């Protein structure tokens, strides 16, 4: 939607650069995943350095000399730290942000250490994998994901990351919840695309929407004759183009799935009334296509 929205050319222009940007922005989501999962590793390292520094004090207390290492020994954090596949991905994608911007690691570490969650966890010195996993899940969900400083950092580094952030955070929490003490290393190195067809779908939807823009706009115009064109939000126009393209050109996607997807996107990115407007237009078009036999959907339950 964003790539199509920002496209200023015509149907006949070369849009290879725009397609390249589309695929780059999608693949860059994986870098955000690696960035955030590596933050867990860096916070653990920061905690270890903190304990070592206290032990080396000239006037070290008994607690300094024999600290509670429960956080450092957290079994899930150790599982991540020892994951060679994850380490390889971090190196190959050149995720070294926290070495350059380590003040943000300090911000998160201090937030963790000052939290009641951490204090409760550190009441004992030993734990099992279940307790360790639950602590990491809660730490990520309650302290890391909602941190304002981290949010600002991500926004400054890459504008497209802000839209990806909810998806990436949800993915990380899902992986943490499913982690086991003997999890395969690949568990924390997920595929960007679940299936190869997913990548091709993104390309096809982008191309077909652009190549059929004039025809798609005519479909929209027929159903908005009583609307002043200036009153229709540009985002709504883009979403309608994409939705109508899906209805016409993608026979395997159920009508309800198409409509629901674009209504959700409209709620997130457009005006408060956009979803109602878009739903009305699409509902009329679907009925018209059904009556004329133009809605060619393959398989059961696709209407």
Describe the structure.
With 303 residues, the protein is mainly α. Helix content is 68%, strand content 0%. It contains 16 helices and no strands. The longest helix has 40 residues, at 16-55. The chain starts with a helix and ends in an 11-residue tail after the last helix.
Biggest β-sheet, characterized?
A: none
- Helix-strand category: mainly alpha
**Cα Rg:** 25 Å
Number of strands: 0
Mean pLDDT comes to 91
Summarize the structure.
With 303 residues, the chain is an all-alpha fold. It is built from 16 helices and no strands.
List keywords for this structure.
mainly alpha, 303 residues, 16 helices, single chain
Strand-helix topology:
Layout: H1 2-6, H2 16-55, H3 62-65, H4 75-81, H5 84-92, H6 97-100, H7 103-113, H8 116-121, H9 129-144, H10 148-157, H11 161-178, H12 196-211, H13 213-222, H14 234-249, H15 255-269, H16 274-292
Helix pairs in contact: 2-7, 2-11, 9-11, 12-14, 13-14, 14-15, 14-16, 15-16
């Amino acid at each position: 939607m964003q790539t199509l929205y920002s496209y200023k050319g015509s149907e006949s222009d070369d849009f290879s650069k725009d397609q390249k940007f589309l695929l780059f922005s999608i693949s860059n989501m994986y870098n955000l995943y690696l960035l955030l999962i590596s933050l867990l590793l860096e916070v653990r390292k920061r905690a270890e350095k903190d304990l070592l520094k206290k032990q080396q004090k000239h006037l070290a207390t008994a607690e300094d000399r024999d600290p509670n290492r429960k956080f450092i020994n957290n079994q899930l954090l150790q599982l991540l730290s020892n994951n060679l596949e994850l380490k390889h991905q971090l190196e190959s994608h050149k995720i070294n942000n926290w070495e350059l911007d380590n003040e943000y690691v300090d911000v998160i570490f201090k937030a963790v250490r000052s939290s009641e969650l951490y204090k409760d966890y550190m009441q004992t010195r030993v734990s099992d994998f279940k307790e360790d996993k639950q602590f990491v899940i809660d730490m990520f969900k309650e302290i890391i994901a909602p941190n304002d400083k981290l949010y600002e950092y991500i926004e400054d580094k890459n504008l497209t990351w802000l839209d990806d952030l909810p998806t990436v955070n949800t993915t990380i929490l899902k992986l943490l919840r499913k982690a086991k003490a003997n999890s395969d290393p690949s568990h924390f190195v997920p595929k960007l695309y679940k299936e190869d067809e997913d990548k091709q779908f993104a390309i096809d939807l982008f191309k077909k929407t652009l190549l059929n823009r004039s025809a798609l706009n005519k479909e929209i115009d027929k159903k908005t004759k009583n609307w002043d064109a200036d009153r229709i939000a540009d985002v709504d126009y883009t979403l309608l183009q994409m939705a109508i393209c899906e209805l016409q050109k993608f026979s395997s996607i159920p009508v309800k799935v198409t409509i629901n997807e674009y209504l959700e996107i409209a709620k997130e990115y457009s005006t408060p009334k956009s979803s109602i407007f878009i739903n009305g237009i699409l509902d009329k078009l679907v009925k018209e296509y059904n009556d004329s036999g133009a809605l060619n959907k393959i398989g059961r339950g696709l209407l």
